TrEMBL record:
Organism placement in taxonomy: Bacteria, Pseudomonadati, Campylobacterota, Epsilonproteobacteria, Campylobacterales
SMART domains linked to this entry: HATPase_c, MeTrc
Name of the featured protein: protein-glutamate O-methyltransferase
Catalytic activity: L-glutamyl-[protein] + S-adenosyl-L-methionine = [protein]-L-glutamate 5-O-methyl ester + S-adenosyl-L-homocysteine
Pfam families according to UniProt: CheB_methylest, CheR, CheR_N, HATPase_c, PAS_10
Active site: 14, 41, 133
Biased segments, Low complexity type: 660-699
Superkingdom field: Bacteria
Length: 1240
């Protein structure tokens, strides 16, 4: 289905165009059935924000043009940089510019495509800019019947482009950008409906008279529908309400008359227009080639800008070449429009104008020059372009082919009949007439034979009664007498004299003479003919020349030259009787040639009338008798005549020689002119290149000004956001220098306004956190978020260190946030105190159980109070689905539910409230996470080192929660403790903060490559952070045990064995935590104390920690390390290394061998050393990277699963702290890790 077509406004702009476009778009109405397409000259190497910047001025959708897209109403489109835009079959086409220095996009190319594709639906607008791009495109739109508008020069920052378009004379209106936005929709959407023609003949007659007087064309025989449409168009542009009002405008404005004249002269053409028609014509011509003389003569009437003339020339040349026939081709291409003929003579066309031509023609008949294609010289030399009015100018004779396509459709029947008569007379016998597809043929069937009715190809019919061609010259049927009799408001311009001869001749002579005559000017150029003048003249061969001596018959040329010279010289009539043979006759007869100057008239200055009067005397050469006495005299006369002819021939040859010399001189002048023109083109090219660069810089500067304004607004927003925060925040750059901070940060750091730009390490830190610098460096280099507790001035804070990421997702600094959690810690201490009291009672079982039961009840109450006091939602879920317990915060959030039973009846899982969110992979319901087939709680548990978030929308408000899940086995059931920490405010702040800071730094800071500082201290800080984070899990386990114990207490009394097991597990966890903290405190001590311990105990302790994880992942652990070997070293650090090796083995098995995982531990005793080996079947390490596994930050795991420092830290502990050796190598099915230590 063909796309619905509607008006499209093409806008061309360059330097200063951004301001004009803003004003234009700002004033546009929101809903219009129009599309606006902007071709703004842009820097081809720089990205543009033109879409974003202009979108702020309107609610009309603004988008970049996409190749192949169909324009939509009420849309604004912007051509991307370094592309040329065209409209083909109502679709956008984007192409790469073929010439580097031309403006990009080319407005001329764009407007030409609009004219070709839309015709009268096209609107062209030229805004501010340097150069002249768009002027030719304005002409194309105007010639196609569209509307053209240019910006008022005073309102344009750079007026060159609008001025160039205005100077073409093809601009309908000159307006400011604001006026354009208001007037363009009015012009397009409010066409004037003229009154019935019968009611307004007077007004139409006045328009016809004005046109005839000013442009010398009588439009009264044009179809009324055509005249009406064009006048309505001009009335819309001039905003006149009635025809009478428009006539008044015409009378006052000579410019408007010429604009109406251009609108009435529809200039629309293309190469091979209706390709099938030219294929049919080619077949007809091919059959007639052998019947033509040595010269094939063609007349293209109404040739417009020349495409049809060049098409027929190429077609004929190809035919002759294919058939091997040598004939000369001579084509007369005529049109009434001077401007169209000028363009046709140039023979240059843009790529879009020739895109429908077969490659054969482009390859053989065009020469590419820059962005244009020029017709080849061999084709150009075949064609004579001339301004010619088919209605009143002499016709061409002895023509083999006449092409007059889509011209007659604008004429009424009477004028069509007259033109068909002229064509019939002009054609040779069996000559071909080629008409347009829409042309009516009812007026020519008596004189032409139908060859192809579909494509309107006809052959001349040699009828007995020829059409009425007694007077080949058409007299206009109307004369503007009323206007001619009025005194002229202006003196007659000399340039108008020649064009006004026609009127004066008709008024002065037509009534006085009935003989055949012609009128010549002072240069012997024929300006008027009357009667059967074709008996005395013939159409010359070669370049068209209107000189009378080129047309006159040879046998009277010399006599006419003498008569005409005498009439001019003596200003009296001159006549002579001459002997001649008239065209079309074989009889020799006498005629009188009379030449005289016309009556004195300022219009007919120096005009000569040449009249031909036939004599009734006939010379009968058949009946002449010669007696003997006169034979000698006749012989002498013949000899004298022969001599005179030889002399005349000599004179002619000398004259030809002189002409050849003059021609040679002319060619040399042309050559010099071409060289000068080439130099001028080079200078113009350089100027255009500089101009293009200047336009690009101007456009970039306009965009930078808008960006600066946006940056100032962003800075204000950022400052206001900072002032509303009620916790400590400090922003650092990648060199740890202070950028911004909130007032509450002074509780942590002693930062003053003068410290901005200084490093964070240069200000006083009130906290008790050791190795702060290493932690900051680790956060920078590893692009990881750190959470830890910090004590400052007797207050406990939750510190969050997270990387600040720029637009390219690279770390460009840090954001440090500190939240006061002192009250929460107090509740935790109460819980710990309650747990410790359980250890005091071990003697009397019944008493202990009774006392502990009471304590547990109190503990349960305290725990409930504690859980209800925290600002988190905490629930216990059975198998990750049904909820079996919840704290008060849950009911505060889900107010619509009075009990868990009511909640469970309506929902299978709390996760039903979680929204799908792809802001990042941190959300449990993001696209990446949802690809896993695990239950959501199991997925969180399997990602131990990753914190997940959930998004809940409730009562049209969005909440963000941190999720923490702890597994709590209960007989056959798997219960999960789900903690949901409300971080909505923090999330909103962090999101806003990142956006604001990113916008601030984007325009000021360039991306800098920075070296990752691979220092051991930073790595140690990373390890401490990881292990500290890891030891938070025992606390969670302890909380889980307490809650589990409480739940079991609700079901009945607790067995003594479980109480004992609970005590034992709690003690081990607490002792382990205490020992770990001591180890970390002494990690950097220079003289750490070694202790003696058994290796099997170390292995058993490490396996106890890893066993639950192995059970979940179905990994079998075989411990052969039962030897009673003792060593003296650092026990806790060895456990950390073993845990790291066990974790690495688990990760490898889960990835490569999840169903049959196996880990084997061995102890090997040597003479002075002892070895611990850990072997797995996890697939091994690729050979090309195995040598790099101990490098810092190198990891074989996925980006989110490994930090690359575990093995590096393990090797540093074994080899530097414990004076041993750690090796990794591939074995049969996996990796073999070997730890070698000194034996006692």
């Amino acid at each position: 289905m063909e796309n619905e077509r509607f008006e499209i406004v093409g806008i061309g702009a360059s330097a200063g165009g951004f301001e004009a476009l803003q004003l234009f778009i700002k004033n546009l109405e929101l809903k219009q059935d129009i599309a606006y397409i902007i071709a703004q000259h842009l820097d081809p190497k720089q990205p543009t924000m033109l879409v974003e910047l202009l979108a702020k001025s309107t609610k009309i959708p603004i988008t970049k043009v996409i190749d192949g897209e169909i324009p939509q109403k009420n849309h604004i489109y912007i051509c991307p940089q370094n592309k040329n835009i065209t409209l083909v079959d109502f679709r956008f086409r984007l192409t790469a510019p073929e010439v580097r220095i031309m403006p990009k996009p080319s407005v001329n190319i764009f407007f030409s495509s609009l004219a070709k594709d839309l015709e009268n639906l096209a609107v062209g607008v030229i805004l501010s800019g340097t150069g002249s791009d768009g002027a030719e495109g304005i002409k194309a739109i105007k010639n196609a019947g569209g509307i053209t508008i240019a910006q008022e020069e005073k309102s344009a920052k750079y007026p060159s482009m609008p001025k160039s378009s205005i100077e073409t004379g093809y601009v309908d209106a000159v307006l400011t950008p604001e006026q354009m936005a208001i007037e363009i929709p009015k012009i397009i959407k409010s066409p004037r409906i003229l009154e019935e023609i019968s009611d307004v003949p007077k007004n139409l007659d006045r328009i016809y008279d004005l046109l005839l007087m000013k442009v010398k064309i009588d439009f009264s025989d044009y179809k009324l529908s055509t005249i009406q449409r064009r006048i309505e168009r001009r009335m819309s542009v001039t905003q006149t309400e009635s025809l009478e009002e428009y006539v008044t405008v015409l009378e006052k404005s000579k410019k408007e008359i010429h604009l109406l004249h251009k609108d009435l002269l529809v200039i629309v053409t293309s190469f091979f227009r209706n390709k099938e028609a030219f294929e049919a014509l080619e077949k007809v011509i091919a059959n007639k080639l052998n019947t033509y003389s040595d010269t094939i003569r063609v007349w293209i009437s109404g040739c417009a800008t020349g495409e049809e003339a060049y098409t027929i020339a190429m077609l004929l040349h190809k035919l002759l070449k294919q058939k091997g026939i040598e004939k000369k081709i001579q084509i007369f291409a005529t049109d009434i429009s001077d401007e169209a003929i000028i363009k046709a003579r140039a023979g240059t066309f843009i790529k879009e104008e020739i895109e429908n031509i077969d490659n054969y023609y482009i390859k053989n008949y065009f020469v590419k020059k820059d962005e244009y294609y020029e017709i080849s010289k061999q084709i150009r030399d075949m064609i004579i372009f001339s301004t010619h009015d088919i209605v009143k100018d002499p016709a061409f004779l002895k023509i083999d082919l006449i092409s007059c396509r889509n011209l007659l459709i604008y004429f009424n029947n009477s004028l069509q009949k007259r033109i068909f008569s002229i064509f019939h007379h002009s054609l040779n016998s069996n000559g071909v007439l080629f008409l347009g597809k829409s042309e009516s043929t009812s007026n020519l069937l008596h004189y032409f034979k139908n060859i192809d009715s579909k494509w309107k190809i006809f052959s001349k019919e040699n009828t007995l009664s020829s059409p009425n061609i007694t007077n080949m010259t058409y007299y206009p049927k109307r004369y503007p007498r009323n206007y001619l009799q009025k005194p002229m408001k202006e003196p007659i311009n000399k340039n108008d004299k020649k064009s006004m001869i026609f009127d004066a001749i008709n008024l002065s002579i037509t009534k006085a003479f009935a003989n055949d005559f012609l009128i010549v000017d002072r240069n012997n150029q024929i300006v008027f003919t009357n009667g059967e003048i074709n008996k005395y003249i013939k159409i010359p061969v070669g370049n068209f020349n209107n000189d009378v001596f080129s047309f006159i018959n040879d046998d009277i040329r010399i006599d006419l030259r003498a008569i005409l010279s005498k009439a001019k010289r003596e200003l009296v009539s001159s006549n002579q009787r001459v002997r001649t043979t008239l065209n079309g006759s074989s009889t020799l007869q006498y005629i009188n040639i009379l030449a005289f100057s016309l009556e004195e008239n300022e219009v007919l200055d120096d005009a000569i009338c040449i009249m031909f009067i036939e004599s009734s005397d006939k010379i009968d050469t058949q009946n002449i008798t010669v007696n003997k006495n006169s034979e000698h005299a006749l012989y002498e006369m013949e000899n004298e005549l022969l001599l005179m002819k030889e002399r005349l021939q000599t004179t002619n040859e000398e004259l030809e020689t002189t002409n050849e010399e003059l021609q040679s001189t002319n060619e040399e002048l042309q050559s010099s002119n071409e060289e000068l023109q080439s130099t001028n083109e080079e200078l113009q090219t350089s100027n255009e290149e500089l101009q293009s660069s200047n336009e690009e810089l101007t456009t970039v500067n306009d965009e930078l000004e808008v960006r600066s304004l946006e940056l100032r607004v962003s800075n204000t927003d950022l400052e206001n956001t900072f002032n509303t925060l009620h916790f400590g925040v400090v922003i650092l750059d990648k060199k740890l220098k202070i950028r911004k901070y909130t007032d509450d940060i002074n509780k942590i750091f002693d930062i003053r306004i003068s410290d901005i730009g200084e490093t964070i390490n240069s200000v006083q830190f009130y906290g008790k956190k050791e190795n702060l610098k290493m932690l900051l460096l680790a956060c920078l280099t590893e692009k990881k978020v750190y959470n830890f507790e910090l004590i400052c001035r007797n207050e406990i804070y939750n510190a969050v260190f997270e990387p600040y990421l720029n637009e390219q997702n690279n770390v460009d600094g840090l954001i440090l946030s500190f939240y006061n959690i002192s009250k929460l810690k107090e509740n935790e201490q109460k819980l710990l105190k309650t747990t410790l009291e359980l250890e005091r009672h071990k003697h009397n079982l019944e008493e202990i159980v009774d006392i502990r039961t009471k304590k547990l009840e109190k503990s349960h109450s305290d725990i409930e109070n504690l859980l209800n006091s925290v600002n988190n939602i905490i629930v216990v879920s059975k198998n990750g689905q049904e909820l079996i317990n919840a704290n008060q915060k849950f009911y505060d959030f889900f107010k619509e539910y009075q009990s868990l039973d009511e909640f469970n009846e309506r929902h299978d899982c709390i996760c039903e409230f979680f929204e799908i969110c792809d802001e990042s992979d941190d959300f449990i319901y993001s696209e990446k996470v949802m690809k896993n087939n695990l239950n959501w709680v199991d997925f969180i548990l399997s990602s131990k080192n990753k914190m997940f978030k959930a998004k809940i929308i409730k009562e049209e408000k969005t909440f963000i929660f941190d999720l923490k899940v702890t597994l709590m086995p209960d007989n056959d059931n798997l219960n999960y403790i789900i903690a949901m920490n409300d971080i909505t405010l923090l999330h909103e702040y962090q999101t806003s903060l990142k956006l604001k800071v990113e916008a601030e730094t984007k325009s000021r800071l360039e991306q800098e490559k920075f070296l990752i500082q691979q220092s051991k201290l930073a790595s140690m800080g990373e390890m401490i952070g990881n292990i500290a984070h890891q030891w938070r899990q025992p606390l969670n386990s302890l909380s889980a045990l307490n809650i589990g114990l409480s739940l079991k207490h609700q079901k009945g009394r607790i067995p003594f064995e479980e109480m004992t097991l609970f005590e034992k597990k709690s003690s081990i966890i607490i002792q382990r935590m205490s020992k770990t903290i001591d180890d970390f405190r002494n990690f950097f001590a220079p003289n750490k104390v070694s202790e003696t311990f058994m290796l099997k105990e170390v292995i058993e302790e490490a396996t106890q920690f890893i066993q639950p994880s192995y059970n979940i992942n179905h990994i079998k652990l075989i411990n052969h390390g039962s030897s009673n070997i003792k060593i003296k070293n650092h026990k806790n650090e060895l456990i950390q290394v073993l845990l790291n090796l066990f974790n690495n083995a688990k990760d490898a098995i889960v990835e490569f061998n999840p169903n049959h995982g196996l880990v084997i531990i061995n102890i090997i005793e040597l003479e002075k050393h002892v070895q611990i080996t850990v072997e797995d079947n996890g697939g091994g390490i690729k050979q090309e990277v195995i040598d790099r596994v101990f490098e810092p930050y190198f990891s074989t795991k996925f980006k989110d699963e490994g930090t690359g420092i575990g093995l590096y830290m393990s090797k540093m502990i074994i080899e530097e702290s414990m004076q041993g050796e750690l090796k990794l190598e591939n074995c049969k099915e996996g990796v073999l890790a070997t730890i070698t230590l000194q034996n006692i």
